[in-house]
Design a protein that fits this description.
By secondary structure, the chain is α/β, with parallel strands linked by helices. It has helices at residues 56-65, 81-84, 87-94, 102-111, 180-194, 198-208, 227-238, 256-270, 285-292, 311-323, 342-349, 369-385; strands at 3-6, 9-11, 14-16, 21-22, 26-27, 32-34, 37-40, 45-48, 73-75, 97-100, 119-121, 127-129, 134-139, 149-153, 158-162, 215-218, 243-250, 274-279, 295-305, 308-309, 329-336, 356-357, 361-364. It folds into two domains: 3-238, Metallo-beta-lactamase, Chain A; 246-387, Flavodoxin domain (Rossmann fold, 3-Layer(aba) Sandwich). α6 runs antiparallel to α7. Bound molecules: MU-OXO-diiron. Residues 78, 80, 82-83, 144, 163, 219-220 line the site of MU-OXO-diiron. MU-OXO-diiron is lined by residues 78, 80, 82-83, 144, 163, 219-220.
C-alpha cells in the first residue's frame, strides 16, 4: 500500500492485519503496521526505516509502484528488526547509504549485519539536504532502545518518530486525526512499550516540541495529522499524576483468595472507587498494562504454591515491575495451605514500583471473621489514600 503524506513524501510500509503476538509476548488485538516512508528531494531520495522482513515482497512492490530505481539514503531511526530488517536488502538493491547515529550503527552491524562501509554516521541535530527537502536528525534515546532517534522533514514539518507515539493498529486509514479507537491503541502501545521509559520520554518530548510539527508519522499505526492529539495524551500518561483507580490482579486455587478479592472489590466499589479487576489466568497482559498507566493503587491477590508465590502471579508481577508504572500504593492479599513466605517474595519482586505497601492480609485456608476485619482495615487505607 502507498499513501501520499505530502508532496513527494509517501508511506511505503506494510500492514500486518493478522499478526496476533509481538515479541512472542504482547497480544495484538488489531494486528500492526510497519511504517516506512519515502522522501523524494530534487537531488536525492531517502527512505526512512524499512519493514519487518516477513513483509519484504509488499515493501519492494510499493517501491516498484513508485518507479524507484535508486535510493540514496536509508535512514535508520531504530535498530530493532521490525524496522531495520530489510536495510541490507535496500543497500544491495538500490545502492543506498545507511544514515544513522553511532549507537544505532553498532546495533545494525550486529543485529542485521550491515557493513561498516555502507554506513554514514550523523550527529544529534545534523541535517541532510536532499534538494528542497531537508532531514534533521534528533536523538531521542531510550524510546525504547538506547539508540532511538527521530527524523524531522523541515519543509513539510513532518516528524518521523519511529516507535515513539506508535500503535499496533492495522488500518487502511493511514492518517487519523484522533478518535477513541486510535487513542485506545496508542495508549496500549505506550503501556506495553514506552511506560518503563516515562521519565526519559519527558525530556525527549521537550526536545521534540522545539520543532514546528504539522504531522507525526510513527513506525507503527496511523500518522497523526493533528500532532497535539497524541502529544497531549502522552503528557498525561508520563506525568506524575495518578487517577483514583485500583487495579486488582489475582489468581485463586481453592476460592479462598478469590473470596478475599471479591469482598475487597465490592467494598471499594461501594465507596465509589474505580476498580479494574483481572484474573490473570485468562487476562490479556496488554489490558493489564493499559490499566496500570494511570492507577494510583495496585492490589495483588495470590495463593501460595510450593512455599512461594503462585507461578502465574510471579509472571504477572515480573511484568508489572518491569513496566514501572507510577503506582503509589500496593496492597497484598493471599492465602496458603500449609506455609511459605510469599509476601517477602512479592516485596522483593516489586522494588521498581517505589510504592507504599499496606499491611498485607494473609490467611490460612478459608477467610474467617477476624481476617475480614483485616480486609476492612486494608480497604479503609486504600479509600483514605484515594479520596483526595
Ligand atoms: Fe517497532 Fe522497537 O520496534
Amino acid at each position: 500500500m502507498i499513501r501520499k503524506l505530502a508532496n513527494n513524501v509517501y508511506f511505503v510500509g506494510a500492514i500486518d492485519w493478522d499478526r496476533k503476538l509481538f515479541d512472542e509476548l504482547i497480544p495484538l488485538p488489531n494486528g500492526t503496521t510497519y511504517n516506512s516512508y519515502l522522501v523524494k528531494g530534487q537531488e536525492k531520495i531517502a527512505l526512512i526505516d524499512t519493514v519487518d522482513p516477513k513483509k519484504e515482497e509488499e515493501f519492494f512492490n510499493n517501491l516498484d509502484k513508485l518507479n524507484i530505481g535508486k535510493i540514496d539514503y536509508v535512514v535508520s531511526n531504530h535498530a530493532e528488526q521490525d524496522h531495520s530488517g530489510l536495510i541490507g536488502k535496500v543497500v544491495e538493491k538500490y545502492g543506498a547509504k545507511v544514515v544513522t547515529n553511532e549507537k544505532c550503527a553498532e546495533f545494525l552491524k550486529t543485529h542485521v549485519h550491515v557493513e561498516d562501509d555502507d554506513i554514514r554516521i550523523i550527529k544529534d541535530g545534523e541535517e541532510l539536504d536532499l534538494g528542497e527537502k531537508t532531514l534533521k536528525f534528533v536523538f531521542t534515546p531510550w524510546v525504547h532502545w538506547p539508540e532511538t532517534m527521530v527524523t524531522y522533514l523541515k519543509e513539510d514539518k513532518i516528524l518521523f518518530s519511529c516507535d515513539l507515539f506508535g500503535s499496533h493498529y492495522a488500518t487502511s486509514e493511514i492518517e487519523q486525526n484522533g478518535g477513541e479507537k486510535l487513542l485506545e491503541m496508542a495508549k496500549r502501545y505506550y503501556a506495553e512499550i514506552m511506560m518503563p521509559f516515562r521519565n526519559i520520554i519527558k525530556k525527549n518530548i521537550e526536545k521534540i516540541e522545539k520543532l514546528e510539527i504539522e504531522k507525526i508519522a510513527p513506525s507503527h499505526g496511523p500518522v497523526y495529522p493533528n500532532p497535539r492529539f497524541i502529544l497531549n495524551e502522552y503528557k498525561k500518561w508520563i506525568s506524575d499524576n495518578v487517577e483514583n483507580e485500583v487495579v486488582i490482579l489475582y489468581v485463586s486455587m481453592h476460592e479462598s483468595t478469590k473470596k478475599m478479592i471479591e469482598y475487597l472489590t465490592d467494598k471499594l466499589m461501594d465507596e465509589g472507587l474505580s476498580v479494574k479487576l483481572h484474573n490473570i489466568v485468562n487476562s490479556d497482559i496488554g489490558e493489564i498494562a493499559v490499566d496500570l498507566v494511570d492507577a494510583s493503587t495496585v492490589v495483588i491477590g495470590t495463593p501460595m504454591v510450593l512455599a512461594g508465590v503462585h507461578p502465574l502471579m510471579a509472571g504477572a508481577i515480573y511484568l508489572v515491575n518491569a513496566l514501572r508504572p507510577k503506582t503509589k500504593y500496593l496492597a497484598l492479599v493471599g492465602s496458603y495451605g500449609w506455609g511459605g513466605r510469599f509476601i517477602d517474595e512479592i516485596k522483593e519482586m516489586t522494588k521498581n514500583l517505589k510504592a507504599e505497601i499496606f499491611e498485607p492480609v494473609v490467611v490460612k485456608g478459608l477467610i474467617s471473621k477476624k481476617d475480614y476485619k483485616k480486609l476492612d482495615n486494608l480497604v479503609n487505607e486504600i479509600i483514605k489514600r484515594n479520596k483526595d
